[in-house]
Amino acid sequence: MSRVLVTGGAGFLGSHLCERLLRDGHDVLCVDNFFTGSKRNVAHLLNHPYFELMRHDVTFPLYVEVDRIYNLACPASPVHYQHDPVQTTKTSVHGAINMLGLAKRVKARILQASTSEVYGDPEIHPQTEGYWGKVNPIGIRSCYDEGKRCAETLFFDYHRQHQLDIKVVRIFNTYGPHMHPNDGRVVSNFIVQALRGEDITLYGDGSQTRSFCYVDDLIEAMVRMMETDAALTGPVNIGNPREFTIRELAEKVVAQVGGRSRLIYQPLPADDPRQRQPDITLARERLKWEPQIDLDDGLQRTIAYFRQLLEG
Length: 312
Ligand code: NAD
Ligand code: UDP
Prior knowledge:
Bound molecules: nicotinamide-adenine-dinucleotide, uridine-5'-diphosphate
Low-confidence stretches: none
């Protein structure tokens, strides 16, 4: 049994990760400031004898004794990370410094939840880990993209300078139960709109692409990455390489939910990446991992979750 700290543990991915780690027999400390996460996501874990929930903002130092740290704290939806961009950068950068400092003090292994956003609006397709990205440093997405890039820099400098045991994964668009209904990301937006019989809001002409990974697949890859030998620092892309246009996604959601929602078109936000697809060769080879759940199946599970949530 390891003592595992999950920052951002009450969020969408964090809550699934806490659940998985408890199932694997670990002692889990979930730290969150509840900016975008919620106690509801971990309510079912509160009575577990090896689960502990702590309200804390990672931009402040944290003194705990743990063996492993999964650093997930950071709002991930453009709507939320642009709400207070200065705090977003602080969360990524000060949060990384604080968690790396903690890892150094207690000699813990630490994994960073990085993102495909480090590639920005990519010029190569699909994106491999060796690609350095095309990121606007002063745009409305920069607080998130550059914050995450700087966090990666800090991870590798702590590794080189202090021999810290690090792991970095670059997560591509992931969806599933426990996303916030007002999260603002595309899958939850479309499902909630369809279930409410509202219009489906396509930004731009809907021809931009994303590759959607179901949460269970993602968590499996993260846990495998954490347990690889120390030589594998990453970065490793994790995501589902099957690529869809946003219009195709909208059509799938409407077909599965039924109802009479129409597709409507709204302006494309600034710096919205045109296309995104992970090259997961490295994850296949080193983690012996690839996604098992296709978009139709994952959407069905996610729609069932939101249907129950909205009815409740
Ligand atoms: P989320 O918004 O549901 O979860 C983020 C969690 O971090 C929330 O519980 C939030 O309250 C918490 N948090 C935010 N700022 C904090 C702070 N200063 N101190 C403590 N807690 C704080 O998003 P998610 O989708 O679960 O994303 C989790 C991580 O994975 C993020 O770091 C995100 O950048 C990364 N990621 C996610 C995706 C995805 O598609 N879901 C893609 C790429 C990267
Ligand atoms: N998007 C959309 N309608 C929505 C929300 C998002 O068309 O209601 C588009 C958005 O412009 C982007 C894609 O869907 O092209 C994915 O957006 P999301 O915010 O989920 O993630 P990210 O842009 O960070 O990949």
